[in-house]
Amino acid sequence: MKLSRKWLGEFVAVDASDKDFAEAMTLSGSKVETTEDLGAEIQNVVVGKVLSMERHPNSDHMWICQMDVGRDEPVQIVTGAQNVKVGDLVPAALHKSLLPGGKKIEKGKLRGEASNGMLCSYLELGLDQRDFPGAYEDGIWILSDDPELAGLTVGEDIRTAVGLDGHVVEFEITPNRPDCLSVIGLAREASATFDAPLRLHAPEVKGGGDGCLAELLDVETPDPELCPRYTARMVRNVKIAPSPKWMRERLREMGVRPINNIVDITNYVMLEYGQPMHAFDYRYVKGGRIIVRRAQEGEELTTLDGNVRKLTPNMLVIADETRAVGLAGIMGGENSEIVDDTVDVVFESANFDGTCIRKTALALGMRTEASAKFEKGLDPLNTLPAVNRACELVELLGAGEVLDGVIDILNHVPQPTVLKLEPDKINALLGTGVPEEEMRRILKKLDFGVDGEHVTVPSWRGDVQRMADLAEEVARFYGYNNIPCTLQRGETTQGGYSPVQMAERRLGALCRACGYSEIITYSFISPACYDKIGWAEDEPLRNSLKILNPLGEDTSIMRTTTLPSMLDILAKNYSYRNKNARFYEIGRIYLPGGPDGLANEPRMLTLGAYGEGYGFFTMKGAVEALLRELRIADVSFLACQDDPSYHPGRCAGVYAGEKLLGVMGQVHPTVAANYGVDCELYCAELSFDALLDAQGPGAEYHPLPRFPAVNRDIAVVCKDGVTVGALEGCIRKAGGRLLREIALFDIYKGKGIPEDSKSVAFSLTLRADDRSITAGEADEEIKTVLAALEKELGAVLR
Amino acid sequence: MKDQLAKIRAEALAALEGVQDAAGLDGLRVKYLGKKGELTGVLKMMGKLSPEERPVMGQMANDVRAALEKALDEASQKLEAAALALRLKAEAIDVTIPGQAVAVGREHPMNIALNELKDIFTGMGFTIMDGPEVELAAYNFDRLNAGEGHPSRDWSDTFYFDQDSRVMLRSQTSPMQVRAMDTLPLPIRILAPGRVYRKDEVDATHSPMFHQVEGLVIDKGVTMADLKGALNTVAERLFGEGTKTRFRPHHFPFTEPSCEMDVQCHKCGGVGCPTCKGEGWIELLGAGMVHPRVLEMAGIDPEVYSGWAFGFGLERLALRRFKIDDMRLIFENNIRFLEQF
């Protein structure tokens, strides 16, 4: 919401710089976004009088003018314009002047003749035809031709001379305060903020226009709940013309383009009172009847912006006997627009249901100044003063003859809210000791009725409904920054993290220690991702929650797997030519079928990596480290050949006992190719919940061995198909209580080993807790192990 | 004999002066102190001395032996030290050669900022609370006093999963207030961080998914002064002691009175600069006293209990903290970006 400080000054005198004004208003609750000095771009441009003109000796179209610019001596300025004559008052940009757009004017020579500045057109001053309708468009702006600019002083700053000296403050008005979307509303806040009296003005309409309103116009509101109030007046014998300079200037300052006197009046009143107004051409209100009704299904209306709108019965229209002439509260119809030969005008000042207006504007994609106001809920008591103000302005501008009387249909005008003033409760909520008298004073200056302990809320303050709201009013003007700061009191609470949150932090730290950096990826993905990671058409996890109004296809479903997100980031890094990357993400997946129709949102710990020297066992080492951190027992990695996202020969299911914790391995080359990557990618997807479930008990100290261990290395030859896991399992089973550790240290294929076999070497550690074991005992143990290896897996000592 | 001893002493000490290595030293030790050494030779003649002379000479001979032994030890130590110095010199390395790289992963800047906050608040007795992101509109809006017709409920602003606008992606972490009030015993002090979603196109300052942190305190006799005290403490912990804050009135449907808290621009100290867009203040968070209607809807009597709540965007905090100028970097996860933190 823009506010012209000149206009504000009509209602309240505030003597403060823009900066101080902005600061004070912000701290009392009307947040200022920006302040602007409209003339800041224009400097050293004055009203100049043409004293004499002579032809430029070296040009057939230029003139050398001697200008009176209010100095002792005339100033010579060369111009190429042909519409200037001796005696004219024109804008003269002097040496070292500034024009809008950062244009600098300096003295110089034009074809050999000195020119100490430039004569300006209004375009060069940042104005257009609508600002000064009478001005000559294709040449210098002849100020003395405009009767509205009579009485200018030669040498006067052009900004004050033509009204380019406005200061505008732009506010961010919160949706609970539609009353502040008006000059008067903001004036009331400024008056309370600066303790300066608010000077409101009651519109006075002389009336007396020819005709009887009741005979000419009839208004019906068949849907009273959508139209709590409809107020209208009529003006006859309208003379459409540009509105006067002061009005154009104010509109321009508030960011509204002047059009003609009648339209300008409706805009002026909307800005001043916050009440949207509409003016119809009476000729086109067939039968003199205005019907505020729901649109018919499929009914069409061409709005003022020239667009054909297809309407539904949820939308409210202003209609005559035969057709819609306007979209209630949003925009008028082209068919009843005010035009140059309009004679009779109906001013509408109505109150419409905010939700209906909002939904209609949204459905039609046409949010307007008016609809933005209505949708927040306006004060129904404002319609009558607003329409009277419009009529008053018509009379002031001599734009027509106002008929006596007002059509005013009151379907629903709410009763004023009366609250009890409870100073103790207000202070208890704020933690303050504001005296009751101060509270009363604050409420009174905001036009609350304060009578004994009763507070009557003004009609425009629909947001104030209970004690807490009054507390906010008191706090705003007592000063939020005068409320003390106190430390937390009352019952102490423990605070802290849940076990899941602690595990999240712990595992995150471990991932980083292993060299993996944390990433954060979007929870929504494209449905095409499931194809990209190779999932079958009938994969049950394809069943995802679909966003009905997504930003785009790429973010339209909630992921049921984190793999595409990780692959996406790996691929991006690969395309950025990052040589190595190791990532982890602890993030959720979203599975349909949760409570209340919501999702189940389990967390996943996802690892992803690529780079030189990175392989399956690099990833496996990291996964093992994570499992160790959680003291998960009975871990096994089982080859997994049927996960379509992974290399069938380089993928493992990760188990704790029988329980699957997740999957890890090399991403299937086809899947990697789908992401535009031609190197080996590795990923692990671990269920965070399963990891936590499998978590072992806390650490417990075991005495360090007091007796020496015996190490025995064995190398066995077995068929290629026998896995290290199987060999280890067999050794562990066969080994007695003395066998403490099994460590793989070599796998060899080649010379001396049959083609279809391999040699696998382990280092076994044997130890007793209560004595030193003998070599004989160790040999016995090893013999048993070797026998079992041979019998069960055909693995023989090399 | 006396002369002989003095000569041995002088000769030996002189010889030790010139010794170059361990072998030379050993030679001297043998030559003077060995079984067949010169001093031993002299001592062998002790028997020939008169009983009166013997103790005198004996004393003198011992003195010479002690002096020689001491000198030999010193020479030996000197030689060892020289040898060590030589070895250390030979072992010298170029310490400017880079160390062996240890790959340590980095924490995402957003979570660095978040964890800092979590630690601040857990220290103040707050419990960290998680909740669903796919949320009921009833919790995200209705129970927070943003009824039918509230603009943020529009399909142009919020992502929905059903035509009835019942199930949605939470547009704020505030529904966690409702979940906390519904499930936790009083008094309540929670911090609920998490992902939230709004229908904003991706640009330098927007993302359809971002993170918020919600805080809620409900107890008997909680005041707006408490809110200010607690949030000031947080600002000081985040931005350093003496950080100035200011509170401005604002509006949120679920708090009354509502406010926004600004911190004084750290860059210009409040004078106004590009960082604070000339305002001298930087908006940090929104807060307020829990709206009595919200308490009532949760079955908490606003005549007995009151509370305060706050919420803010984590990305903005992280961006400011690390001087990141484009939010897209947060979700791009370029390793060269992540490695900077």
CATH architecture of the largest domain in chain A: 3-Layer(bba) Sandwich
Number of helices of chain B: 12
In total, how many beta strands of chain A? 41
Portion in strands of chain A: 25-35%
CATH superfamily of the largest domain in chain B: Bira Bifunctional Protein, Domain 2
Q: Specify the biggest β-sheet of chain B.
A: 7 strands, mixed
Short descriptors:
heterodimer, A: 798 residues, Phenylalanyl-tRNA Synthetase, Chain B, domain 1, OB fold (Dihydrolipoamide Acetyltransferase, E2P), 6 domains, 7-stranded mixed beta sheet, 6-stranded antiparallel beta sheet, 21 helices, elongated, B: alpha+beta, BirA Bifunctional Protein, domain 2, 2 domains, 41% helix, rod-shaped
Strand-helix topology:
The complex is a heterodimer of chains A (798) and B (341).
Chain A: E1 2-4, H1 5-9, H2 18-27, E2 31-37, E3 43-55, E4 63-68, E5 75-79, E6 89-99, E7 103-105, E8 108-110, E9 113-115, E10 117-119, H3 158-162, E11 167-172, H4 183-194, H5 213-216, E12 218-220, E13 229-236, H6 245-253, H7 261-273, E14 278-281, E15 289-294, E16 300-302, E17 308-310, E18 316-319, E19 324-327, E20 331-332, E21 345-351, H8 354-364, H9 369-374, H10 383-397, E22 401-402, E23 407-410, E24 418-420, H11 423-430, H12 436-445, E25 449-451, E26 454-456, H13 467-478, H14 499-513, E27 517-518, E28 524-525, H15 528-532, E29 557-558, H16 563-575, E30 581-588, E31 591-592, E32 599-600, E33 603-610, H17 616-629, E34 635-639, E35 646-656, E36 659-667, H18 669-674, E37 682-687, H19 688-694, E38 710-719, H20 724-734, E39 739-748, E40 757-766, H21 775-793, E41 796-797
Parallel strand pairs in A: 12-15, 27-30
Antiparallel strand pairs in A: 1-11, 2-11, 3-4, 3-6, 4-5, 6-7, 6-10, 8-9, 13-21, 13-22, 13-23, 14-21, 15-18, 16-17, 18-19, 19-20, 24-26, 25-26, 28-29, 30-33, 31-32, 33-37, 34-35, 35-36, 36-37, 38-40, 38-41, 39-40
Helix pairs in contact in A: 6-7, 7-10, 11-13, 12-13, 20-21
Chain B: H1 2-17, H2 22-33, H3 38-44, H4 53-90, H5 109-123, E1 127-128, E2 134-136, H6 137-140, E3 167-169, H7 175-183, E4 188-197, E5 209-220, H8 224-239, E6 245-252, E7 255-264, E8 281-290, H9 292-297, E9 305-313, H10 314-322, H11 328-332, H12 335-338
Parallel strand pairs in B: 1-4
Antiparallel strand pairs in B: 2-3, 4-5, 5-9, 6-7, 7-8, 8-9
Helix pairs in contact in B: 1-4, 2-4, 5-10
